What we know:
alpha/beta; seven-stranded mixed sheet; 7 strands; 38% helix
Amino acid sequence: MGATAVGTAAREGYRDPTHHRPSFGAILSALQLRPEDVLLEIGCGGGAFLEQALRSGCRGAAIDHSPEMVALAREVNAAAVADGRLEILEGEAEQLPFADDTFTCAAMMQVFFFLDATRVLAECRRVVRPDGRMALFTVSEAARGTPAAPEPMASRGRFYRDDELVRLARGAGFRIASVTHPDLARHARAAGLPDDIVELIAEGSEIGQLLLAR
């Protein structure tokens, strides 16, 4: 899931990833989590998205390939872990350590560029129940070299057209798949980001891709 995040700066950045919160909002708006949901997050980083998602009352699990991020995510979500509502494991997206049909929904963001798309989507389909749903946020080729996909991500990451994402999801076994370009400025305002950041995000909204699949 990209380079391993280490060090104090990485911990603080992933504890409160302000620049990622608009995509969190887009994913949560799409999933509409309920208390009966069982959520999987792939590439959970420091656990900030999980902390927001669990406010719905749902249960969840997550993986990250970085042991330091797993430790931070458990720390950020210590109460949910202690209550048995959340399990966070070290693992690889292409080989999820969960049984078939475990989850009602899956979420992924800020990591898809670095993954084997075919394998990770097939794994998502395997662990999500037949009537479940998946929401994935990434950015298009137009983001390469911009603040949304700076170096080294720009050189290392994989970018996809909307139709390619749909084809990949259907190839993995999802019957219904579509890509939208969510209004990230709306989610940035809801997250309390400053006006100058909201304006910057608004200018680049078209490069954000939200893949929804069932």
